[in-house]
Amino acid sequence: MKNNLQYFALLFKKKIMLNFEFKNPTKIHFGKGLIAKIADEIPADAKVMMLYGGGSIKTNGIYEQVKAALKNFEVIEFGGIPANPEYDVLIKALNIIKSEKINYLLAVGGGSVIDGTKFLSSAALYNGENPWDILQKGIRTEVGMPFGVVLTLPATGSEMNSGAVISRAENKQKLGMGGPGLFPQFSILDPQVVASIPPRQIANGIVDAYTHVLEQYMTYPIGALLQDRISESIMQTLMEIAPSIMKNPAEYDTACEFMWSCTMALNGLIQKGVPTDWTVHAIGHELTVLYGIDHARTLAIIAPSHYRYNFESKKEKLAQYAERVWKINEGTTEEKAYAAINKMEAFFHSLGMETKLSKYSENYRDAAPFIFKTFTERGMTGIGEHKNISPDDVVKIVEMSY
Ligand code: NZQ
Ligand code: ZN
């Protein structure tokens, strides 16, 4: 039956929703004052490692709330995980996990701390000799050490997904990992944490979440009306709240909308049954490796060029985005599609985000040859929803973003 349906769909060039599985086991506690809930979620006899970043939690009251909730647990702290979590730092935590027989991890931070914790969850139970192989060889994590999350920065969706991205400065690499064993057991989403986030990171969060939706939406039309409309509504919500959350991150009701939109953008729901792209992220990670540019800003640089370069294969969805999200109803499909890319870029600018690589580094011309070499070496010879974007195409996209 399924095969027949797909055969007829092909015959009549009608696209139908793809088969899928969906399981997301992460328990969410969303709302004011819920950090204390971690005490109910972590097993009473657990030996916990509490992981955090460069110290923001010590200035905004989050550290004290977590410590109070953990008062009856045996806890070892590991702070200092940098943005774009660094392998060498994580290995120090791994050694302590092993020597101290830690059996539960608690990430208190944004995407970097959560991703670092996911790496440790995997590496702590990994039997191989070299934990770098998990990233280098793309080993999926079926079972990891259990961990929970206190989210301090809405952006990545890492608090409700099973992926992570780890950097290794020494090798000039930033690589992804994942697997069903890497969902957090629980995540505390208290929108009050947004109050202390500086405007640059708020802008990053909005653009990262927005681009997550784009990567799962801006492909070609397929019979997935619901996924499309959920995607469009996440983008519309982010656009609606952007000016007020940028101006006043302490506004609780807006912080709620911001936080939940970011989680929903990458918790797996909107990618089910539809083709996905992820070219913007693949190229963006290399810009972080080369120039240390914040993750979200790399996306703002690449997305406009990517959509302009791959216009023909994406124009129908671009026009749908134009009509439904930007309310552009005049003109041909092509005119609407182009207008939407311009609007998207203007939206990034409205958040104070530059969209040209030359605004971030004088050495911007190094980018295209570096990325060409990296993608070729890794065998990334056909990416995007049609698996037809070659390293030569990537060079053109990157050069368009100069
Ligand atoms: O380190 P501290 O001192 O805590 O400061 C952080 C950091 O400097 C600060 N911050 C966090 N919460 C704060 C706060 N400052 C004030 N008040 C708060 N409440 O913000 C800075 C950035 O934090 P980081 O965790 O690096 O940001 P983000 O959440 O944007 O994470 C970026 C990382 O996540 C990866 C990115 O590649 C990058 O490495 N991603 C992970 C994904 C995933 N796992 O699904 C998907 C994404 O596409 C992305 O690739
Ligand atoms: Zn992202």
- CA radius of gyration: 21 Å
- β content, as a range? 5-15%
Cα shape: globular
- Could you list the spans in which at least 5 consecutive residues all have pLDDT below 50? none
The beta-strand count equals: 8
Which topology of the largest domain does CATH recognise?
Answer: Dehydroquinate synthase-like, alpha domain
- Tell me the CATH architecture of the largest domain: Up-down Bundle
Strand order of the largest sheet: 1-8-5-4-2-3
Distance between the termini: 50 Å
CATH superfamily of the largest domain: Dehydroquinate synthase-like - alpha domain
Order of helices and strands: HEHEHEHEHHEEEEHHHHHHHHH
The figure for the number of domains is 2
Largest sheet: 6 strands, parallel
Structure description:
This protein has 15 helices and 8 strands. With 402 residues, it is of the alpha/beta class. It folds into 2 domains: 2-20 and 198-400, Dehydroquinate synthase-like, alpha domain, CATH 1.20.1090; 31-193, Rossmann fold, CATH 3.40.50. The strands form 2 sheets. A 6-stranded parallel sheet has the order 1-8-5-4-2-3, with helices on both faces. Strands 6-7 form a two-stranded antiparallel ribbon. Strand 2 (47-52), helix 3 and strand 3 (74-78) form a beta-alpha-beta unit. The longest helix has 23 residues, at 225-247. It is globular and about 65 Å long. The model has no long low-confidence stretch (mean pLDDT 96).
